[in-house]
Design brief:
By secondary structure, this protein is an all-alpha fold. The protein has helices at residues 3-17, 25-32, 35-65, 74-98, 112-138, 141-147, 151-163, 169-179, 182-195, 215-225, 231-254, 262-283, 286-291, 299-325, 328-349, 356-385.
Length: 399
């Protein structure tokens, strides 16, 4: 029972470093570590993930929408962060080559054939990071998680459309919680057996003892009721969720082209992004905006821009680190808890006042995401225990 997490960490180690056969000594050593030491390591890694992720969001919000900066160039901010990532990747690769054992990082060499094979994924990657930043520019940090909450829903939808993978009823119900359509579904489902399947027996929304909407839709409704809703920011959030799902699916297809190394993929993705962002900067006029920017020569501005790039690079590392020391399931739970804490922190920091229904929408989104994570983990555990079920025992419930 204790061997599964160790196997996952070894697989992750192979993906991050490009190694073909990770040493089994680490597995033996980890089994000898005292419980308190392992608990302290996990606490430190999870804390590092939280600090890095939350700091990156608040720093990007400052760069994208700060009244003191007044810089209307979100594409340039994203482009510069990609440049910082490329420089860091090359720097760490050179350090690993010159000083073996100092840092565990794969050797990087630009291969145009590999860059071309990664290009379709890079287009999706550009959409993901660009729409993420555009969403953050137009919506508040407190609403940011709700605005981008449809990633799980798109994961289910695209897995069926592109990979022909069905999803269980329980997982679909958790998606309903995230979207906010589950109340009507449950009410109709409970009456379907007695009054037919046409839905005629459903109670009207006005008679429900709960909000008609929930999750994402309730969040949008409450943000609009408070006069802080940005329709454009919400659209960018939905597009960002779509690109995150597409990125996860196509990453699996492209990884063999980079020897299954996440860092090589990061390098090529950001190189391609730097090239593709250049015409966008010209077409959208952001170079002219930057030329007339009042703080263009400010060391503080460039320091904050570089720090944003450092956080963008670091989040990939600490994410892998958290999965390595815990598990993919624990990582998702940690991410959900981090989102909750980030929302509360944003409301306090920006001195905002939110309604009860607004908080309800956030809790439904976070609760639905946590439930989906738990359901998928439970289903994967069942598959591991019984990897080859008989054909007549397979569930037929799916999307």
């Amino acid at each position: 029972m204790n061997r599964a997490p160790l196997k996952r960490s070894r697989i992750l180690h192979m993906a991050l470093t490009g190694a073909s056969d990770p040493s089994g000594e680490a597995e033996a050593d980890s089994g000898e570590k005292p419980f308190l030491l392992r608990a302290l390591q996990i606490a430190l890694v999870v804390s590092l993930y939280w600090v890095t992720s939350i700091s990156m969001v608040f720093l990007n919000k400052y760069l994208l929408d700060s009244p003191s900066l007044q810089l209307d160039a979100p594409i340039f901010v994203t482009f510069y962060q990609c440049v910082v990532t490329v420089v860091l990747c090359k720097g760490l690769s050179a350090l690993a080559t010159c000083c073996p054992g100092t840092v565990d990082f794969p050797a990087l060499r630009l291969d145009l054939r590999v860059a071309r094979s990664v290009l379709p994924l890079s287009v999706v990657f550009i959409g993901m990071i660009t729409f993420n930043n555009l969403c953050l520019k137009y919506v508040g940090v407190a609403f940011y998680n709700v605005g981008r909450s449809l990633t799980t829903v798109f994961n289910v939808l695209l897995s069926y459309l592109l990979l022909k993978q069905t999803t269980s009823l329980y997982a679909l119900l958790t998606c309903g919680i995230i979207i906010g359509a589950q109340h009507r579904f449950w009410t109709c489902l409970s009456l379907e057996g007695t009054q037919g399947s046409s839905g005629a027996g459903c109670f009207p929304p006005s008679s429900w003892p709960w909000p008609e909407e929930g999750g994402f839709w309730l969040g949008v409704d409450q943000e609009g009721a408070e006069g802080t809703l940005s329709l454009l920011g919400t659209v960018f959030g939905v597009l960002a969720s779509l690109c995150v799902s597409l990125n996860a699916i196509y990453t699996k297809k492209v990884l063999p082209a980079v020897d299954n190394s996440i860092w090589r993929l990061t390098f090529y993705n950001n190189i391609n992004a730097c090239v593709l962002f250049l015409p966008l900067l010209l077409l959208l006029g952001e170079l002219r905006t930057l030329w007339s920017f009042a703080h263009l020569g400010s060391a503080h501005f460039w320091g904050m821009m570089t720090l944003g790039g450092l956080f963008g690079f670091a989040i990939g590392y600490v994410t892998g680190l958290q999965i390595k020391f815990t598990s993919p399931l624990t990582h998702n739970v940690s991410g959900t808890a981090k989102a909750c804490f980030q929302t509360v922190l944003a409301v306090l920091y920006y001195e905002e006042t939110k309604s009860f229904l607004w908080w309800t929408s956030n809790l439904m989104v976070l609760g639905g995401s946590s439930a989906y994570t738990w359901v998928r983990g439970w289903e994967m555990k069942k598959v591991q225990e019984d990897p080859s079920p008989r054909e007549d025992e397979k569930s037929t419930v799916g999307v």
